[in-house]
User: What shape does this take?
Amino acid sequence: MSEDVPSPPVAPASTPASAPGASPVVTGQGGLYAEREAKLVAELKKIYDPEIPMNIVDLGLIYGFDWTGDDVVLRMTLTAPGCPVAGILADEIKAAMEKVPDVHSAKVDMIWDPPWTPDRMSDFAKRQFGYA
Assistant: This one.
């Protein structure tokens, strides 16, 4: 089933999510930023979708990170473009990312292509919601 997961646009190198085999692949620039990205993913796993009882990483909403020095842009999506809490959730995510050491500033970039599907969820989330 994992071969059917759509591939998000990626930076030149990729970094897997921090939890071994539990989270969807989150891509970024790796290398110099790999440790920071792992810390970012750990912080993002503390943030839950307000309408679905699951964290945003395991839901597969996080597509990746783009870095310029110590500034990071998070590429993410929502389960539906009309999500009423998009602005509030983005503010919460930005604040959480800026708590990570060596992150100067953070921005959340909501993207809709590729669209979110349940295939993007982690194995854990799929089991919780009956997809596996």
Q: What stands out?
A: The chain has one domain: 17-126. The two ends are 9 Å apart (CA to CA).
